[in-house]
Queue: 4 jobs
Job 1
Amino acid sequence: MTGNGLRTIVIGFGQIAQGLGEDGRMAKFFTYATHAQVLRDHPGFQWLGVVDPSKEAQKAARDVWNVAHVSEDLSKVAREVEPEVAIIAAPPGARAEIVQQLPSLKAVLVEKPLGYGGEEGRAFVDFCRQKNVHVQVNYWRRGDELYQQLAQGGLAERIGRPQAVFATYGNGLFNNGGHLVDFIRMLLGEVDTVQALDHPRPAEDAPLEGDVQAAFALTLAGGAIVTVLPLDFGHYREVGLDIWGEEGRLALYQESLGVFHYPLAGNRGLVNEMEISSDKPQVLEPTVGGALYRLYDNLAETVDGTAEPWSPGDQAVHTELILESVLNSAESGCERLHFQ
């Protein structure tokens, strides 16, 4: 890889780093599904290194992606590259130690969750702040163009104030549950209370070891209640959000590939009443395929000092403390907990 972009390495070269790019069906909708695809094309980053213990991953980095410096030894790659940006796609656990070994570092783009528990994530973000290292977390919906428009007033214009919200996720509370809660916060505002609705159960075959599935409710600062229910992805996948407002309904299904607006209409069964046109949606064009690339755009601008991160570490910590509160509520007998 050549160019004058920020010297960049990837730590952890698995599914989200490069594997998902091999899924032909995903490629129909996601131009940029992986970090490797973005780094191959983005002029703001000079991709020089990969660190991974897997020989197969190392071979892919060399042979498929033409990465010059590949090893299982972070210190070796760090000496050879002197990275300014690190993409940390390895599981939580030793991320502060990674940053400690990279003295030239200016920014990290980190996979979620930041840690096994909100306080571990907070400690990592605080450590990066002490080192003057910017943190961007791959809650990728924060980089999506359409979702940014909805968050900045487009949702209220279409459906007014939310009255009721229904949501589903699978493959783990701290995996897709984190994406979902962060998305809820992005679109609908902050969480006031958290309440578990049942006892968590193990999330079978989830990407994060020890993760769980849990049903819970969030009361938003604006008063609306969000009911969140887990699904078994062994039957089908869905990370979905269905928002019923005072003036319409917006549903995001097919794991964000389908965005449907249902406006108000005259009630077909009663005079002088209204209904949601649930059988006549207006389909909004999704923009998810470029969301990860746009997060990198924003990261480069953050390093330049011309922007603030769209998905900063502090926001990720807030989301992950909410997830932790779900577990705390379950342990207390499903008590309703106020969240600050």
Note: DSSP finds ten helices and 18 strands in the chain.
Job 2
Amino acid sequence: MAGPSMKSVEHIVLLTPGFARDEQDTTCIPFLQDYVLALHRFHPELRLSIVSLQYPFDRSDYRWNGISVYSAHGKNSRFPSRFLTWYRVWKQLNKLHKEKLIDVIHTFWLTEASLIGKLFCHLKGIKLVAYSIGQDTIASNKYLKLLRLQPAEIITMSERLRKNLDDLGITTGGVIPLGIEPLKFPVTEKKRDIDLIGIGALTELKNYGLFIDLVAEIQKQFPNIQAEIIGEGPQENMLAEKIRRLGVEKNIALLGKIPHSDIHSKLGRAKLLLHTSRFEGQSTVMMEALASGTHVVCFDVGRFDEPSMIHVCLDKEKMILVLKELLGGKELSHTPVVLQSTATMVSSFMALYQKTTSFPL
């Protein structure tokens, strides 16, 4: 049977909750920034337009690395004010479509961006690609019942996310894993002087209270253990107080938000990424750790099949045992592992964009 026919794609709109406000804003959805840059690099003939619903809060039309970005600066407003944000986005999509016909709208997360994208594509006869990334696949996501997406319109970042949706009775069109930029992770022979590193938002979901508990337990055997947590969020004060209460101020540093390039340097100095998150789709920081030659200790979330570098634990007790073993003088290989590059991710999505009829991947 003949495969799907291909079409010429000239104008792609990426519809997202947020995007970098300028080239220095490297911590706003880094994987999306890398993807856009790679798409632009490998396909300079394309017109790319980025439309962001909520962030930046203070910019509208601007250029980012030569690419047009429009922000409705919704500022995460509540309903009914949020409908005004949706109206601004709809108006901008109409404007872009009049300037040059949109061939594909690629939405990120199965939430409000995908809802607006679905309605606009249905009305205008435009191809939709909705990318599922994480907690948008759990039953509490109220948008799932509203979206009514066709299977081939939904692409998940990982097999775990595909299964989550399948358990909810939602069939998807395939899996396209996240890619990273290998060039960001130079191989060095520097001494690994950071024993444990944690990277992510300081939220209940990321579970950094457990990270601190683990360090407090391990430092009884390894009194000079050095750990760092990179990120900011609502639990920052609570975590700082817990560090003081447990008396591990000399062992754990809360570094706050730092540039993404500095994160890469930190990973290159770390022995282990301690990933205590309760839930992940496909963890970007795990892939970045592997590309830096850094081992990963985690629960069974957001992971990959790389048994020599990823150490999966079922509970806190197992995590303590694994950390003690890995830090106890065992010679660890820090050979970088790149599971998928952004080039491969771009190639997969371009093949999807160009299909005139959507079929499961």
Note: The domain at 11-179+341-353 is CATH 3.40.50.2000 (Rossmann fold).
Job 3
Amino acid sequence: MSRTAEVRRGGGQVTVVVRLAIDGRGRASVRTGLAAFDHLLETFALHGRFDLDVEAAGPTPADAHRVVVGTGAALGEAFARALGTREVTRGIGEAAVPVAGALVRAVCDVRGHGILAYQAAPPAWQLVGDYDVALTPEFWQAFALESRVTLHLDLLRGEHGRPITEATYAAAARALAVAAERDPRIAGSAPDGAAGERA
């Protein structure tokens, strides 16, 4: 059974549309108007092997916060819908990803709590192109709430905003992908469409 979802959120100045396939190949088509954020979402798709389409209408520099948080919320809702309420998965995932001198660890539980524990901020505030690193915890907070995922993100090593931020998106994606895997130990979780209760 294909695990996909499409979510449209917002209105007024900013509208975000997200299409997500959990069982994808890492393909991404992202147009948010924020080049660095586009790259981070492409990194998320690649590392999670998710197929991801994101469109954000009408962003300006003043709308960057709305775009990032709105996208996080829409992606979280899409993840929850695609995963489904009757899917038997591994439930918990963990990954540590190095990018240059940065190392970030992500641990998640997809079983319905919606909590973010974020200790992955760079030592000093930085801009990464047109992306404010202070938006990263807001993105993941919105994602966690809407996906009902408990997500821990921890910076283990690193000084610079760009590799830390990229490693955060990559580690979260890998942990989520592991947690979303169908659990072969449980009858009804095979990808033939049979499903039991969500773990």
Note: The first helix runs from residue 35 to 48.
Job 4
Amino acid sequence: MIERISYIKQLEVFINKPFIKVITGIRRSGKSSVLLLLREQFLSQGVIDEQIIYINFESFSFATLQNATKLYEYVKSKIVPNKKSYLLLDEIQEVEAWEKCVNSLLIDFDVDIYLTGSNSHLLSSELATFLAGRYVEIPVFTLSFAEHLQFQAYYFPQKEQNPTTAFISYLHSGGFPVIHTADYSEESAYKIVQDIYASVILRDTVQRYKIRDIELLERIVRYTFDNIGNTFSGKNVADYFKSQQRKIDINTVYNYLHALEGAFVLYRVPRYDIKGKEILKTQEKFYLGDISLLYATMGYKNRQISGILENIVFLELKRRGYHVFVGKLDSREIDFVAEKQGRKIYIQVAYKLENEETVAREFNPLLEIKDQFPKYVVTMDDLWKEVVEGIQHWHIAEFLLNDF
């Protein structure tokens, strides 16, 4: 099993600390693998196997434990007296009233608890109610470009690819780990992602939020997928449906978008007024939990390349722990303003700088920002790295691999 080092490092900080560790992310992003890697780490540090209680609630082996009382009794029976137990609960949202059980286990026993879940709203609401101040969330994403290279080197050591060539493969395949463990054709890879998408829509969206009009949900998905990289509002969606002779309430649009966010299909990115230094409440952008979801549901479209590249950069920023906004500078837009621990970076993403007009569109807004934080233009131009009046121009492959 390939180590996903960044997530293990995040978890190491909290091992044996009095916090519940909650690992979240879209289905098949690798949460279970992170739990199993953690289990191996415990064993290597001298924890005996009996101290580790691992339960995957999607396995039929544990189907009888999907209510709080039965889960509590099962864990109680497995705890080794006078030793700390390590409780690894995979896809905890499958257990009815799980939060009450976890709260009791934390109070009654000497346990270090790790949970995974595929629905952010379900976890956050219950945790906020029962475990406020006693949990930390570790988001897990699909493979980064660096991890893609790691998987390629492990599973296909005979292939030698430079970063530019390897990025084309990553661009067309996305980051779900399972499709990088064998030499799948593009068609087969998208079929696998279609199945993942169907599971996410059914189990983490339709069933969790009791959505009745599945056809309408799919239409909203297609609208948002077709508009990655574009700002829009719930009213824009409703107006679009109206133009298609389909009436839809704006609140319904927002409810469905909220459900898709909860399942990590979409991420909502608010706009930030750079001059006014305030977050705006209209015309957000939405990005996908993985770009392969777009290909699997709507096919690859060259006209969307700029939005796809933005999506890749956005996910990389999230992996690195940044708070991400779309920047507004008067009437112009900065693709990303990213903040972490008091530091900012500004990023413009484009396919290629093919003419002077494109160069001006990408560079001029950054030149008007007079603070000293780093500023980047990221493209797929063959030119790798260049600095223009303090603004760094990077090829996207190099950008994704460096500590920007």
Note: The two ends are 28 Å apart (CA to CA).
